[in-house]
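Next comes this protein:
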Amino acid sequence: MQYTPPPSLVPFFLSDSFISLVCGPVGSGKTTSALLKIAYHAKQMAACKDGIRRSRAIIVRNTREMLQDSTIPDFHKWFPPDIAGIYLKTERRFILSFDDVECECLFRGLDDSNDVRRLLSLQASFGCIDEFREINPKIFEALQGRLGRYPDGLLVPHRQHWGVDSNGNPIQGCVTDAGKPNKHLFGASNPPEFDSWWQKYMDEPPATASVTFQPSGLSPECDWSQHLPSDYYLDLAEGKDEDWQQVYIHGKYGRSLSGQPVFPSFKPDFHVAKGPLNHIKSTLKPLIVGLDFGLSPAAAVTQLDMLGRLLILHAITSEGMGITRFVQEKLKPVLIERFPGHPVIVIGDPAGNQRAQTDERSCFDILKGEGFRVIPARTNAVVPRISAVERFLARQVDGGPGFLVDPVHARAIVTALRGGYRYKIKKSGDLEDGPDKGHHSHIADALQYSCLHADGGAMFGSTFGMQRREVKSVRPGGWT
């Protein structure tokens, strides 16, 4: 059978990263893509001395029952026993054979301590985790150490044109024909709960990992529905609560049990750009830098474009850093590197005008001393600040978002809006009156000051000498 992944799965399927993860709605084809990725990488393995491209894959599920009922049947649909290879049922082992490839596939459920022990004593080429959100992160981390160890240098000896690795050792073993490492760990899953270990890993993956998110099953970008029954997701939504739909239909993180997002109208598929944003290079459109003071300063670099959209260009965060150091080591370098020579307006908490007891300089004095034009926000009351962000989230311009976030440089804002910035739940079960003043609150406050100023320009006429284009506010409930 021929396999062509839908466009939303191509980045995952073709990824050569050490770790590749994909998250999406139920029925989106992600498990199929993960299983076929085994054959994709097995075909790239350098041949052993006898000409056979040997490899070993460990296929993991959280329980033996789920492995037997779901993962193995999915595997056999594409790799039928006695056609694509030999299946040894008692050992849960499949010898995949095609062309000059021989890949030993080992299926492991992790509901038994013996399975875990055996898993962590294997030497393999690849790891494939089905529904990785259900796997303990410690297992995920330990599994990484078992990969790239088969075939070894005895089976695939060094070839002169491969050269040496970064440590000066001759390249050999688990590599491609080009001598590049061919160890891989990949996984597919429905989205995990927000604020879980997996959510944090996917939002801030290490340099060795790539993460792919598929669109909602009800969005125009859904590119796999032709493989499902008619009206599959519409029928699936019937009788399900919003939290269930968010995970299994829209492919969003599950609701955190520790609180409720401050901005539920934020829709990543709609409000997050598909790639890095460029600023408008016009002196009539200065950068609006919202700045939150305190011991962990944060800045949101934004700009109103010619269409009246608010572009969220960069998020700058810190830990345990005074305002002077933050400006000199964090804010200025970003402005010089990404926005050289562009005019800037800094909008800060009005409390920043208060003078410190140590040197009698306020935060505003420090910023002015660094050459910034500083304007106090109209208010630091939380309700109008949150409302200013909500108004931009609810705005559409020419059918697109009136609030657009850079997915690379403003990732901290995406994480905060997705639910990191939230109302905590009291012991009584009620929500706190104000947002939690945790790690995500600093960048969220900075964004609010930017929006408060930009929204003021919309309410009272153009702040920057140009009439803004008329935009329409719509209800966000139908966005996916």
In short: DSSP finds 14 helices and 19 strands in the chain. The first strand starts at residue 19 and ends at 23. Confidence is low (pLDDT under 50) at residues 457-480.
